[in-house]
Structure formats: structure tokens, C-alpha cells
Amino acid sequence: MVLESTARALLRRLAEEQARSRVPSLVAAIVRDGEIAWFGARGRAGGERPGQDTQYRIGSITKTFIAVAVLRLRDEGLIDLLDPLDKHVPGTPVGEVTIAQLLSHTGGLTAEPPGEWWERTPGVPVSDLLASLGPETARHRPGRRYHYSNLGYALLGEVVARKRSAPWEQVIREEILEPLGMRDTTPRPRPPHATGYAVHPWADVLLPEPEHDHAGMAPAGQLWSTAGDLARWAAFLLGDTRGVLKPETLAEMREPVTVEDGDAWTTGYGLGLQLIRHRGPQGARRLSGHGGSMPGFLASLWTDPSDGVAVVWLANTTSGVRASLATDLLDILAEHEPPLPAEWEPVQVDPDVLELTGQWYWGPAAYVLRALPGRGLSLTPLSGQGRASRFVPQPDGTWLGLDGYYAGETLRVVRSPKGVHLELNTFIFSREPYDPSAPIPGGVDPLGWR
Asked: Among residues 336, 369, 388, which one ends one of the domains?
């Protein structure tokens, strides 16, 4: 739990938003160490103060569940992210777009499906949706740019349904929701739930918004959930996957694939996750999560894996809640209760790994190799400028690049009567600058340094 002073500051920010933005009801939760550390609610839903079990429509946060289902298929070898859509859902006019491009909204598809405003009208079966697609479905060359597409996620939902031979919502329930204990997340509302409203722009009156089953478009924004369940989903996205997804796959989802605002790079998209770069009182944060909106509802979920914290908020209004609410709540938490660094503890390091630690040289540039837990290695430039990567051990005695410039590359330790050197993607690292005893590409001038 948070301190009483922190709770008061968080509640004040929530109350300010509910009053200023004129929201019928607004709930929020802070997740820390996998649990709800604070929950707040303002306004009324069905005449009652909403609780952690009150359902709201979560809109496009649904897409994060679809993305996890798709990546589970990839991890099982049933699809490849480079597969064209046509391989799994043949016959669409955008069949050349890849699964990865659909996940990251870089496929160039139109944002919305043909027909009326799909979010306020009853949906059509997926067969009718697919039959309605024409040449206008493609708006940009695949891979050229970020262009958010609800239609793209409807198509991904159909990929999931066809590969599992079951409706997408059944797949989500059986493979994700039930293993995580998320019993309050459903395709249609169940009591208690908030009613969705539009708030008149110039008067304090409400207009109920329609709610329908969106059928073929449902994977883009159908789900309803609660603050309690979304807190559990936030814990999942922070790393508590409980076997639903490999940790390395979750990390892959958070990697930036594209950015929305070019050089500024404050918002972007990974594989099913929106990304934000935010600077708060404790410095820069990279947040991952998703927002959601449907007529009558707004939702937001953001996680900071580096600190192990997350924020969730849900509202039953079509528009008005400021986007800064989520980061403001995280900033309040960071200001009042900054995280403590993890305690340092000694670890066991194998002698052969310990022997490799210390200074190495790539040409004249000094690098340092440090031991990490589990026989891992970290290679960083001593000056702080240059290429840095972490490496994890492989069964054949090599190390595989985990991140940075050398992600996916192989680090080899080569021993010879002349000494030891490192080989990394054609580069040679030696114990001395341009050590003539190492096989430096291009050789070393026999006159040496002078």
C-alpha cells in the first residue's frame, strides 16, 4: 500500500480530473510489486460509487490481448511474423501485409472498416467484413509509415480464430484470461457495470451511448474489464506472465517498431503495445501499454517495467479525460515514494567467466567486460560513447547478444598459444590496443605505436 499522504495526493489528482473534465465516473489504480497499491474512485456508476469490480469498456486495450494470442502462435511455430496475411487469411486486397506490420500498425491499412461508424452500430460477421474490403483498404505502402488501423486488428483476430479453430474470444479466455485469474474481463458487460455516456459540451447533461456486439470488428475493441482485472493485466505486462507468454517475447512486444512523431519520439508502437517516452520527477521513463476509447468509455493502462509500477484508469465518458492523467499519477507516486535501488549482493561467478572480465580494446577504443548473473556478460565502452550490449551464454560455449548493437550476434572467446581474444561479428577485441598477437583484420603495422 502507499502512504496516507501519497494516497491523498493521488485521490486529489483523480478528483480534479473527474470534476474538471465532467466525467460521470472515474476509477484508477496504481500497481506496484504485482499488486494494487492504491485504488481511487469518483462519481457514480448505476447510482453507486464504482469499485474495483465495476466493469467498463476498455476499447483498444483489447488489442493487447489479441497481440499476445498472436505471439503465442508465433512462439509455437504455427505462424511467423514475416508471414503475409494471405498465408492465413487468403483473399483480402491487402494479402501482402505481414503479421508483424499488422501488429505494429505499419501495414498501411485504412484506420476504419467500410460502412457506417463501426463503434456505434451493430457489427457484421467477419465473412461480410472481409467481403466488403476493396482497393481503398490500402492507404500507404506496407512498412512506409505508422498508421493506426482498427481494421488491422480485426484481421489479426481472424488469424487467431483460424489457427486455433475457435472464436477469438474463446481463445483469449482459455489461453490468457483464465490462467491469469482475470474472471471479470468479458466480451459483453455483466453487472455491476458502468453505462457509457456522452457529456454535453455546454451543459451538465448526459446522453447514453449505444453499445453493440461488433462481431467481425470486435478484436479491435470489444472487451469489458475492471480496475482489478486490468491491474492483473498490468502485472502481466510488467513481467509476471505465469507461463502465458515467454518473458523474452514480452520484452519483444515492448521494443519500438515505429514512432508516431518522428524526431521527437515521444510516442511509438511495438508489437501490440503503445509506447511513451515521458520525463517525470525521477527522470526519463519509457512506458508501454495502451489506451482505449469507445462511445461512452475511455480507458488507459501504462506500465514502467524498470520500476515495476503501472497505472490504470477507466471512465464512462466519450471524451474529455486528459491524456496526462496516467503520467501525472505515476509522477505523484514517484515524487512521494521514489523507488529504492535494489540491494547489492555478491553472486557466484564461474572462474572462466571471471577471467574474461576487465578491459578489452576494439582497435584503440577501450571497452570493459563485466560479469552478470547466470554467466551473462556486459560489454560497454569505457568512455560511455559507443556500442554496448549484454550477452547470454549458449550451450556451445559462445554468448548471444541480447540487446543493443550486437543483439542476435555471437560473441566467441578464442584461446591460442599467443593469448586470448574476442571475436564479435568480424570485430576483434584484444587485451591491448591493436595487440599484434591477436588476428587483427588488416594486420598491425610492424613498427608499432610511434
From this structure: 336
Considering the domain boundaries, does residue 166 fall inside one? yes
Confidence bin at 263 (pLDDT 50/70/90): confident
Residue 443 lies in a domain: no
- Same domain for 230 and 156: yes
pTM, to two decimals: 0.90
- My answer on whether 379 and 296 are in the same domain is no
331 and 355 fall within a common domain: no
Q: Taking residues 108-132, report their average pLDDT.
A: 96
- Condensed to tens digits (0 to 9), the pLDDT of residues 123-152 reads 999 999 999 999 999 999 999 999 999 999
Domain limits at 231? 4-336
Query: How many structural domains does the chain have?
Result: 2
Q: Is there a domain that residue 235 lies in?
A: yes
Do the beta carbons of residue 295 and residue 317 sit within 8 Å? no
Are 12 and 113 found together in one domain? Answer: yes
pLDDT of residue 126: 97
Confidence label for 342 from pLDDT (cuts 50, 70 and 90): confident
